[in-house]
Write a structure and sequence with these properties.
4-stranded antiparallel beta sheet; 15% helix; 166 residues; 9 strands; alpha+beta
């Protein structure tokens, strides 16, 4: 009986050893290495500003710009004078953009004799596209007197964001 137990135990151990060797022979380890890189570039910017209409006696100054700011200083001479500045925005990046926000506010304590208006902007600005819009500064035509305060400030924010894809 004891001899039978030893034989059974040996057969059992041999079976386990054979199974372990068989498993390791047919098992494969996989090594996975991954790397992700963003290659897209966001570059929607102002590329130009110029005065396109300046009446005689008026001064459009020298408008300046950086990629995200424009500055101008209009000097209007008489009621009815109007200076038009044309601003160019271009998508120089690799990501399509769409217009999200336009906010133009005039100085609250400014004078009523100066008005600012703007033309519409292109909503979608795909890679390589550009859009222009006008900022129109007007000395109100039907003004009856020269105001004591003679300046009015405009502040604007135009925001393009990544275009939603379907």
């Amino acid at each position: 009986m004891r001899k039978n137990r030893i034989i059974i135990l040996m057969v059992f151990l041999a079976t386990i050893l054979l199974m372990a060797v068989g498993y390791s022979t047919f098992a494969t380890d996989f090594t996975i290495n991954g790397k992700a890189e963003i290659t897209g570039e966001w570059d929607v910017r102002i590329t130009n500003i110029e005065a396109t209409q300046v009446p005689d006696g008026c001064d459009a100054g020298t408008p300046t710009f950086t990629k995200d700011t424009i500055n101008f200083s209009a000097k209007l001479n008489k009621p009815g004078d109007e200076i038009i500045y044309e601003v160019t925005i271009q998508n120089l990046g690799t990501i399509d953009a769409e217009l999200q926000t336009i906010i133009f506010t005039e100085e609250i304590d400014g004078i009523e004799e100066i008005n600012y208006t703007t033309s519409e902007l292109k909503k979608d600005l795909n890679v390589g596209d550009s859009t222009t819009f006008n900022i129109i500064v007007t000395y109100v035509k039907n003004t009856e007197k020269v105001p004591d305060v003679k300046t009015k400030t405009l502040t604007g924010i135009i925001q393009y964001v990544q275009k939603e894809t379907a």
